[in-house]
């Protein structure tokens, strides 16, 4: 490995760690300034718990200390590899995140691939047949999609496909009343379809519209004209010169959409009661569960950071001009 | 080389007009005529140079012949290739095989494809040898075929672009300003290549600003002004001097050449949206009479043709 590459990796890690510190401070600040009292949320506000017991609970979770101290305790444990214990689940945060993340990953991964493929194909078709009925149809569809909230769309899909048509289950990641070991892959996929469809649809519009616009630019470019002048036919020319050139914005968008994916999954998982990370984040927020929220925030920061990093790396692989700049700069 | 009597020209463009449908600032649609009643012929085995300042419709003629004008362009007039009408479907058939384009700039190469691959046009392995030969001929090192367009210098890019046309084996090569940015030697080499191609029976349309270079190797020169042909003359008329030329604009061009006095012509070419009726050159012409405001046809004169009532 060259010195240059090592330097690059070092710089990347430095950026990541500073990002994580910033995110954790911000997230912690937001949790402690939220009006939700974690003790209340834990014991339940209407139960007849005495003041003394409440103090015991607060002491047990370390909630009686001042915020600054709490943050430093958390940070010290974090650096030692201990993410703390979730107040909501009464389990180690790392365990909650690991379990939830797996479920979410299936959901987000499917949605991500689906939105990327579907968006790209729609964008290419619309771009090639620019101005046609097909193009206008796709454009309208995308504009409607991009102005539709994911949760509302989820509710619509639920009403139509789960309640009315009964094609899909209403909620959860597996059938109720089955041991997790007994759940088949088919059942998991069956439960995954509606939420991932909901989640994917938010990404489709952006990819499709950007891809369409870029393809229109490419179609009007000098090199496309030259390809035609040399006798290349429309579709082969699009395949040969178009796809590679429009892949760059699509890739950037697709990997940068990691953040939207994460945000969207919070809503989609809530609508479908899908037991993923997004659902856990909602619950942690409602319970003032600082360790879990911080854990999830850090996790999502790493996730989004990775997405952007991957976009950069793939960019370099696809575009020789950027590769050149990198190796010189 | 004048056409032998009875010979059909390879390409015959007659009264070609190109109009763009555009929208102005108030979003009203209007038509912009960029080429009007343009006529040129190209015979087999000859080099026709097309000269004229920027915006005189030179490149658009190339695109019109190939059928590559954008969708908002309307074409009228006749274009015949080997005596047969150039319909859009025929243009599509001939493009890249019978008629090849050598574009002007590196932007005509796909930025993400390696140069060699682009010159060969992809699949054909047999073309590798031909491509290497062409590269050698234009003094392009063998490493260049593995490079990307952005790694080429302007001169290299032009030579790469020219080799695509040579490789295509086309009978008509339209070279759109192939020489700017090239060193004098390489420019001369390139011109010699065009001459060789023409002498081997191919035809070349050489679009250029460089009248001097064009006259040195071309058979005939067509002078464009404001989107139309004002004069077509044998190349030797340009070397013979002002008196041999027919149109006042050609004469002015001649006088503007450094070796002929370097005298610029006052005024500017009319903008495409604002063309006068009649002769397009009237605003700058010393011979102007009321007659010039009428429609002026291209007429034969002294072995060339001219669009001017005063030319003798």
Automatic annotation (TrEMBL), chain A:
Recorded GO CC terms: plasma membrane
Residue ranges of domain ABC transmembrane type-1 in the record: 101-315
Keyword Disulfide bond: no
GO biological process, one term: transmembrane transport
Location(s) in or outside the cell: Cell membrane
Pfam family, one: BPD_transp_1
Principal subcellular localization: membrane
SUPFAM superfamilies on file: MetI-like
CDD domains membership: TM_PBP2
Gene3D superfamilies: MetI-like
Membrane topology field: Multi-pass membrane protein
Keywords from the named record: Cell membrane, Membrane, Transmembrane, Transmembrane helix, Transport
Listed transmembrane segments: 12-32, 105-129, 141-163, 189-209, 246-272, 292-318
Membership in a protein family: Belongs to the binding-protein-dependent transport system permease family.
PANTHER family referenced in this protein's UniProt entry, alphabetically: DIPEPTIDE TRANSPORT SYSTEM PERMEASE PROTEIN DPPB-RELATED (PTHR43163:SF6)
Protein name, per record: ABC transmembrane type-1 domain-containing protein
Lineage: Bacteria, Bacillati, Bacillota, Negativicutes, Acetonemataceae
TrEMBL record, chain B:
Gene3D superfamilies: P-loop containing nucleotide triphosphate hydrolases (3.40.50.300)
Gene Ontology molecular functions: ABC-type nickel transporter activity; ATP binding; ATP hydrolysis activity
Main subcellular localisation: membrane
Keywords: ATP-binding, Cell membrane, Ion transport, Membrane, Nickel, Nickel transport, Nucleotide-binding, Translocase, Transport
GO CC list: plasma membrane
Subcellular location: Cell membrane
The family this protein is said to belong to: Belongs to the ABC transporter superfamily.
Protein name: Nickel import system ATP-binding protein NikD
Organism: Acetonema longum DSM 6540
